[in-house]
Write a structure and sequence with these properties.
Blueprint lengths: L14 H15 L6 H11 L13 H15 L51
Helix pairs in contact: 1-2, 1-3
């Protein structure tokens, strides 16, 4: 398994490695607006090696999609929409976690919207 944006081969994939890949995805998707010094600084802050976005692996639109997805998976507050919004609509799920089928109808679905919330039902601060 390699990083989808950089080709980074580091294993295991830790949260720090995933955040570094998210930074690279952001840079790959923003048309060059994220300067290399910012990517290197983020990697240094995370304690991982710097790997630049590899434009032969991924195009800008795919890079932005990786950025959105990793932001949500990591609940990264500096990421896409504060890491609280999934990049795609999520299927409705039963309380067991299984996807609601057409036979079950929407009444069986939980109200999970894909947003991260605390036990009180509010988004985390």
């Amino acid at each position: 398994m390699v990083g989808p944006v950089t080709g980074r081969p580091e294993q295991p994939v830790t949260a720090a490695v995933a955040k570094a890949e998210c930074w690279a995805a952001r840079a790959a998707g923003d048309g060059g607006q994220t300067p290399e010094w910012r990517l290197k600084g983020a990697c240094a802050e995370l304690g991982v090696s710097y790997w630049p976005p590899n434009v032969e692996l991924i195009d800008p639109e795919e890079g932005y999609g990786v950025y959105q997805t990793l932001s949500w998976l990591l609940h990264w507050l500096d990421g896409y929409r504060g890491g609280c919004v999934p990049p795609l609509p999520l299927p409705r799920r039963n309380l067991t976690g299984s996807v609601v089928t057409a036979d079950q109808g929407v009444g069986a679905a939980s109200v999970f919207t894909g947003r991260w919330v605390t036990a009180s039902g509010r988004p985390p601060s």
